[in-house]
Amino acid sequence: MTTIGYTMMCEQSGPKELIGDVRAAEDAGFEFAVISDHFFPWLDAMGHSPYAWSVLGAAAQATEDIGLMTYVTCPIKRYHPAVVAQKAATMSLLSGGRFTLGLGAGENLNEHVTGGGWPPVNIRHAMLEEAVEIISSLFDGGYVNFQGTYFQVDSAKLWDLPDIRTPIGIAVSGKQSCELAGRRADVMIAVEPDGTLGSMFDEAGGYGKPRVGQVPVCFDTDRDAAVERAHRLFKWFGGGWKVNAELPGTQAFDDASQFVRPDDVAASIPCGSDVDEFVDAVRTFTDAGFSHVALVQIGGDHQLPFIEWAEKRLLPALRA
Asked: What DSSP letter does each residue of 40-70 carry, written as one string?
């Protein structure tokens, strides 16, 4: 059976609201929760971007059983990988072993803030591989020294490590990232229900490991209101990650999506309250071999109604 999760979307809610929402999601029966790790929202209309790791620490204390995961953290620019390893180990301890570290090669939108330019994708993947090696070595315990092409670590050690090693997930979008994930990751992460990604992951050593996908949805008893909200806040989504990773700011995302129509968004994102439409969206991932699917409810002020509806209608339908 597919494991159904909930998304704490930092770009559309403040930190206190995110904690209340994930607590409600756990009570409603969602089995894990992922959190975005951004410095910027995609669009000005989204209006938020609190620090994900502070939210995670609070979520670990506010919940009891729900799994927690970054979806995803970039360890190559804004954060040094040694610092990411320390944050992840601490989260594993705070959560009692419920945390998975999801990693990816990042987006210009968030990483440009530290300066130095945005590397091309092949360089980003090489940087990510070095970062994963550093993080994994620190998770092993003891002192780590590393001299790579992109990163240096000098006598680093994590003094607080969980008894059970923190799982590492890696986001994939093509052959290069699938090969890295197959070799290095405990979990595959993807935002597209593409079965070929799983096949490449398997071939590189990922056979039998979990795969986590994510589905944006927009619940509302008024379908027209749902479509309007999904268009206003998520019209950027259709650009695809190969494009989205390169855009430098919210104005660029707004410009790139200016010709996206409400009907275009409604064709790709379930809107309204038709349970079957939501189930079909999740099924695209399960049919592609994903073991875990996290739902993204669009609209920060519309989380609790969605969670209540999901508890009564959607989650039973998905589990059936």
From this structure: S-SSTTT-----HHHHHHHHHHH-SS-EEEE
Non-local (6+) Cβ contacts of 141 within 8 A are: 157, 158, 161
What's the CA gap between 145 and 9, in Å, rounded? 35
Number of domains forming the structure of the chain: 1
Q: Could you tell me the CATH number of the domain that includes residue 300?
A: 3.20.20.30
Domain span at residue 41?
A: 3-319
Helices 52-62 and 15-28: crossing angle in degrees, nearest 10, is: 40
Q: What's the helix, strand, coil split of the chain in %, to 5?
A: 50, 15, 35
Q: Cα–Cα distance between 29 and 9 in angstroms, integer?
A: 18
Residue range 79-103, pLDDT digits in tens = 999 999 999 999 999 999 999 999 9
CA 124 remoteness from chain centre: 18
The residues, any chain, with a CB within 8 Å of residue 85's CB and separated by 6 or more, are 134, 135, 138, 139, 158
Query: Would you name the residues annotated as active-site residues?
Result: 38, 107
- The candidate with the shortest Cα–Cα distance to 198, out of 320, 132, 292, is 292
Q: Which residue, 299, 315, 309, is CA-closest to 17?
A: 299
pLDDT, average across residues 295-310:
98
The pTM of the full predicted model, rounded to 2 decimals, is 0.97
φ, ψ of residue 248 to 5 degrees: the values are -90, -15
pLDDT in tens, 114-173: 999 999 999 999 999 999 999 999 999 999 999 999 999 999 999 999 999 999 999 999
